[in-house]
Amino acid sequence: MTHDYQVTGITCAGCVSKVKTSLEKISGVTAAIVGLDGKAQLTMNRHIMTSELQAALRDYPKYQLAEIAHAATAHTSPNEDEQRTFWVTYKPILLVFGYILGATLLVEASAGNFDWMRWMRHFMAGFFLVFSFFKMLDVPAFAVSYSSYDIVARRWLGWGYIYPFLELALGAMFLFDFNALVTNGLAFVVMGISTVGVVESLLTKRRFKCACLGAVFNLPMSKVTLFEDVLMVAMSGVMLLVH
Which CATH number fits domain 2-73: 3.30.70.100, 1.20.1050.40, 1.10.287.70, 3.40.50.300? Predict the structure, then answer.
C-alpha cells in the first residue's frame, strides 16, 4: 500500500536525504520517495500511524509530516502538462536531440562518406556531453529529482550526484574513441539501469518529473524518456556486438 504525505521544513537536498533515510528505517516501510517540494510517498507492508512516522523524525524537529487526504485532491484541475501540446511540452528535449542529430550528420557529410559506426559514436558523445551539461547546472536538484524514480538513486542519493560526471566521462570516451568494449559496455549498463527505472515509473502510472535535462526544465516522465534511454542502450549494444 502507498500513502502520500507532506513534509514541511525541507529546503535542500540534504533535508531530502535525512527525511528519506529516517522514514526508510521504520519497520514496514519498503520504499520512500521524497521531493524538494516536501511531498513524500511511502510504500508499506503494514498500516503505520502518522504519529509513528513523525516519531521517526524526532531527531530533526523542523520536519513536520502530515498525510495528504486524497479526497481533498480528487477534484483538483487537470495537470498543466496534460493541457499542453506535445511540442510545447517536449520542445526542450526535441530541440536538443535535433541539434545533436544535425551536428553529427554534418560531421559525416564533411567526411565525404557516411560511416554508421562513426556516426553512432559521435551521436552518443554529443548526447552524453550535452545532457551532462544540463544536469551539472544544479547537481543537488538533479540528484533529488532522479531519486524519485531511478532504481539505484532512490536507494542511494549519492548515485544522483555521480551520474552527471559519469555522463561527462562517457561523452569524452565516445568522442576520443576510447576502448570500444569498455566505453560501450559502461554505456549499456548505465543506460540499461536508467531504462529499468523509467519503465517501472511508467507502469505505475504515477507522475514523475523527468530528470534527463536536470532541474532546468519541467519535463514529465513519458514514453519520450523511455525512447531516449532505449535508443542509447540499442546503440551501445550494436557497437558492442560489432566490436
Answer: 3.30.70.100
